[in-house]
Amino acid sequence: MTFSVRIQTEDFDLSQEVQTLRSGIADIGAVCVFVGTVRDRNDGDDVSTLELEHYPGMTEKSIEQMLNEAQQRFDIISAKVIHRVGILNPLDQIVLVAVTSAHRGQSFQACEFLMDYLKTQAPFWKKETGPNGSHWVDARISDDQALARWGIQVKNALPQ
Amino acid sequence: MKVTLRFFSSLREQLGLSTQEHETSAINVAQLRSELMRLQPNYAQVLSSGKAIRVAVNQEVCDENTLLSEGCEVAFFPPVTGG
Questions:
Q1: Is residue B66 part of a domain?
Q2: Is A7 within 8 Å of A54 (Cβ atoms)?
Q3: Alpha carbon distance A157, B14 (integer Å)
Q4: Which of A36, B3, B4, B5 has the fewest other C-beta atoms within 10 Å?
């Protein structure tokens, strides 16, 4: 699978994932990887656990669409998205986006594009728990603005 | 027609409901939302206009004018916050 999506509760091993992504593909000259991790503070509040919910089926489909879009826009060779769900703790890995290309420019751009897209388009929801209880995390307008840089207008964060 | 309703995240919690079969006379998403709000006070509270609610029909994000079809799956959820 040169382009793949996995939603899972288990952790992932970065070096193993990169190894399989470029295995046997000798025209790859660049691998760009983003890993998102759980912070112990968000907007000034302490965070003890983070719970990730998704929409089985739609989440995978929406990320596959993103990968298709990335292939149209950038000269990339392979890509992989892994997103964890369930209960996570500070320091845990949440998400991995890994992209390969012949030269660095295209994979750098595609990696950022995929993360910007994922933030506002893939059905995941975060719930934070801290000393004052639990709450669902609000969407950020800055994430909509990040995707707008690629010419894609969305209003995920705005009331509608 | 028969549709399957699905609720996620804060909407699921507020309704205490993640999925439900529903017989509707609505033809589109906007009508379904109003119908549900008329039906039960807890729907009225959770789905009230002015709240940031996203809707997907058959797992594709859509707008209020999207038409429903027999057996379709209609999901309601708040803005997404993954990554």
A1: yes
A2: yes
A3: 20
A4: B4
Closest of A54, A45, A37 to residue A134, by C-alpha: A45
| pTM beyond 0.90 | yes
Query: How many residues comprise chain A?
Result: 160
Per-residue model confidence as pLDDT tens digits over A66-94: 999 999 999 999 999 999 999 999 999 99
Residues 6+ apart with CB under 8 A from A143: A116, A119, A120, A156, A157
Residue B82 domain flag: no
Which residues of chain A make contact with B83, given a CB cutoff of 8 A? 36, 83, 94-95, 115, 118-119, 122, 124
Residue A59, CB-side half-sphere exposure with 13 Å CA sphere = 24
Distance (Å) of CA B10 to CA A85, A137, A145: 16, 10, 24
| Chain A residues in contact with B54 (beta carbon < 8 A) | 156, 160
How many independent structural domains does chain B possess? 1
Q: What is the ipTM of this complex?
A: 0.94
Q: Flag whether residue A86 sits within 8 Å of chain B, measured between CB atoms.
A: no
| Sign of the Cα pseudo-torsion (B72, B74, B80, B83, in order) | negative
CATH of the domain at B42: 3.10.20.30
Single-letter code of the amino acid located at A63: I
> Is residue B83 domain-resident?
no
Domain range for B60 = 2-77
User: Which runs of E-coded beta strand occur in chain B?
Assistant: 2-7, 19-23, 54-57, 60-62, 73-77
* Cβ within 8 Å of B, A 51-80: 52-55, 57-58, 61
- Tell me the C-alpha distance between A3 and A99, whole Å: 9
